[in-house]
Amino acid sequence: MAVFVVLLGPPGAGKGTQALRLAQSLNVPHISSGALFREHLKNQTELGVKANAYIEQGQLVPDDVTIGMIRERLSRPDCAPGAILDGFPRTPPQAEALDAILKDLGSSLRAVIHIKVAEEVLARRVCGRRTCREAGHIFHVEFNPPKVPGVCDYDGSELYQRRDDMRETVLERVEVYQRQTTPLIEHFRKRNLLREVNGVYSIDDVTAAMIDVLKSPGETE
Fold first, then answer.
1. What pLDDT, on a 0 to 100 scale, did the predictor assign at position 216?
2. Please, which residues bridge with residue 32 across strands?
3. Are 51 and 64 in contact (CB under 8 A)?
4. What torsion do the CA atoms of 208, 209, 213, 214 make, to the nearest 10 degrees?
5. Is there a contact between 156 and 133 (Cβ–Cβ < 8 Å)?
6. Read out DSSP for 47-92?
7. What is the pLDDT of residues 50-86, one digit of tens each?
8. Which residues are catalytic?
9. How many CB atoms lie within 10 A of CB 201?
């Protein structure tokens, strides 16, 4: 049976990394909504042209366009064994649309994994990031420090802290995430699809926990 999983997590939780690792472990595609948008925009597909018209006007892309992109992607042959969805759905109506898409494909969601990390841990992870000005190499003052403080190991350029990585910005993004995602989490909880994983542990341990909860009949923390 196909394995379709939605992965949720706040900024700094490592969701993108874990989505890739889980996809590799299950041998299914990792579908990032952001990457999917970029693909359609770059290739100027019909859906990409529609999305671009809204983006150029500074408007949100309507659900029907986003859902159309997801429908097209999940219909490709490589998704026959399933997929890890990262960045979609974002709202209960999008979740219902995903159900309809999977039903048309003769499948359904296996689970929704929510990577939980406390705000202070998220701030520590993100605020320590430093980016090199030359090529965008990423370091971390605590977890992956450069050999020389403030200097990129690869090209010798200055390392700086992006505005997105500053504490006030991080906490604001986490607050927005929680506000926007709470209805979606409750939607999946009521359907007994939600599986919660503690994201404070090592990358390997979080990956192992996600694989374990996919075998679990109920919610886990």
1. 67
2. 86
3. no
4. -30
5. no
6. HHHHHHHHHHTTPPPPHHHHHHHHHHHHTSGGGTTEEEEES---SH
7. 999 998 998 889 999 999 999 999 999 999 999 999 9
8. 15, 90, 129, 162, 173
9. 13
